[in-house]
Every structure is written in structure tokens, then in C-alpha cells.
Amino acid sequence: MMAFAQIALEKKQATLAELKDVKEQLATKGWFPGTSGDLSARVGEYTPDEFYFAITSSGKDKAMHTPEDFLFIDAAGEACETTSLKPGRESLIHAKIYRMTGCSAIFHVHTVFNNLISEFYGDQGFIPVQGNELLKELGIWEENAAIEIPVLPNYVDIPSIAKLVPGAIHSDIPGFVLRNHGIYAWGNSIWEAKRHLEAFEFIFELEYRRLALL
Description:
This protein is an alpha+beta fold. 35% of the residues lie in helices and 23% in strands. It has a single domain, classed as Class II aldolase/adducin N-terminal domain (L-fuculose-1-phosphate Aldolase, 3-Layer(aba) Sandwich), CATH 3.40.225. It contains 5 helices and 8 strands. The chain has an 8-stranded mixed sheet with strand order 3-2-1-4-8-7-6-5, sandwiched between helices.
């Protein structure tokens, strides 16, 4: 497999530029309260045991742009280059999703609606959705389609969450939610991951407002 140092600089820079654009757009929506959330995108070739990805550095205000917004890490969560930056603790979950899916980008955000809905359905272990138009944005085109978006417990111990990730991966549902915490959504490109994330968030808000009318 190609070592990180052999990946073209232009490819790394293009990945960071796209992540910066997405970070700005999602920050405008208020989806990174405080310094929360993570964005990542894979670069170079992929095998389940060896891959590299750019990820937001820990403790940064994502509404701002600085030269230290991202760093590159490997499948073990270790920095690929000499840097003083550190990835967030949840980089281990990103790595597990990449390993299980081979996807190209993963976005993790905290919103009021994904917190409320995941808490409401937390004991059930999934968020039921049926007949929602935005399911088409997830690639689900069946009429009156029904899916179950997985909800995982939000353990303080990140490795304990990572162990549960394989059971939350479904080929037709590009995301799962940590209970009362936030969503992980992914895609085969940075922009597909963004589309999936926005579709999930629309679904969560609509479900909340539907329940409020009952």
C-alpha cells in the first residue's frame, strides 16, 4: 500500500480545502456548539488495516479558520506527520467506521434535534423512520420506505463505543447516533457525507416536530 509520504501533496491540500468549506457551512448552521464535533476525510489508497485520514484537531472553534484546524492520522489514530496537534478522542470511532465501511468521509455533529430524538428512542435502540421524503437522499427510493437508524449508548469510555460500531453499520443506512450526544454520518465523498448528514438532521427535526403534535 502507498505510504502516507507518497500521497500527492495536491491530493492532501484538496482534501483539506473541501473539509474547510464543509466546516464553514456546518458551523453556520450552529452544528458545532463550543468546540464539539469532528470532520474527517480519507486520503490515498485503502485497506481495512492501513489507511490515512484528515481530521479536525481537538479543542478548536470550528467557526474559525486557522492553519491548525486539521491533522492527518493513520488507522491507529497516530499522527502521520510531526505536529503538536492532537485529534479528538472520538477519532477512534472514525477509524472504526473507515475500517468497517471503506467510506471516504465521516462527519460528527451535535444538534438539539439529534440529541432529543436519540434520547427519546434510546431505550428502543433505534430511531424508526417511515415515508420521509429525505430518505431518498440516503439512496432509499422505495415507496413509503421504513428504516431504523441505530442509536448507541454514549459511554464515557470511547473504546467501549468503538466496540459497538460494527453492530451499528448497515449497508443502506450511512449513519448512527450516540444517545443524547450526536450523529456520525458518512459517504463515498466529502459532499456525499454532507448530503447524508443534512438528510439525517432534517429527518430528526421532522420527527421531533411530529411527536410534538401528537
